[in-house]
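idk why but the lab printer keeps eating my pages so im just putting this in chat instead. protein + adenosine-3'-5'-diphosphate:
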Amino acid sequence: MAVFSYKTMQSELIPHLDTGMHDQQIEIELADTSELPVGERNIRPAHCVVSSKFLQAAERIHNFTVYEDDVWIVTFPKCGTTWTQEMVWLIDHNLDYETARNVNLLQRSIFFELSWIIKKYDGDTLEQVEKLPRPRHIKSHLPLALLPRQLWTVKPRIVYCARNPKDVAVSYMHHYRHLHAFQGDNKVFLEALLTNQVLWCPQVQHTLDFWNIRHRDHVLFLHFEDMKKDLKQIVKQVSEFFKKSFTEEQLNQLAHHLSFDTMKENPSANNSLLVKTLASVGNRRIDFDFMRKGKTGCYKDELPSDYITRLQEAIDVQLKGSDFKFRE
Ligand code: A3P
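predcted complex ->
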């Protein structure tokens, strides 16, 4: 393949991560990054851990047609993607709660690369995006370099949401066990995550790539922790980004709709349909609330202290020279 370079991942941890949900894991990167926006720091954009099935679609994704009115929600897994998707969809659709209730978020905001990661996914999520009514809302975990190149010429709105990797580690660990059918020891998963061997890794560089272009007019950079701290303020900020003006009452109503307790009970936005879909794809029972805890700082209760130290060290090394800080 001309545009990409990739290698099959090999380590003693890799076989443990093979749950049958995805093909062999590879690390893929865009070979020629000269067309990419890099911001002030001229660093090489992130590569990505994907399933080898992704190779069949990488070029199609690279050349995917983008429209100006598209809305792309980009995150590393477990950073508040679903939360951001529901917020952004409602704001961009003038608070159309009726459609939001009647059409599941999975259909309103399509997971772009999903069918090219999950082995047994029968269908083509890229085609689903092509068929979406405009403005299309698209979710992706791909790093900047692997997203369609027209994002940087057509310049649709891109909303990025970052989350502290220590809380992501906890959230991803539960997600992997329940939704990816991981049966190994938590230690194995955590070690694989720390060494960037889990799907969509690495997280820090993924985040830095978007942090570096956050000042672009069509890019909005959010933090999960800020949404937790003051959701109404973020709802306001996102509304301004979408050039919408809502009354205080409307903003309060939206913040209430997006609160953890309300969203958890909302079958149209709590991803229970995704859990059901993955259960049927894997032909197994899944007893898991996607809306798990929705808190910041869970890592303090759930991660071993020596792991926290090592993860923090790894984060610090990767952030060296950057003005970016993950929120606590
Ligand atoms: P936890 O596992 O820590 O509870 P994603 O959508 O990127 O997979 O992220 C899922 C994480 O976001 C989960 O974190 C989930 O509980 C949390 N989340 C989803 N909706 C939320 C909301 N309305 N308020 C707070 N957290 C939310």
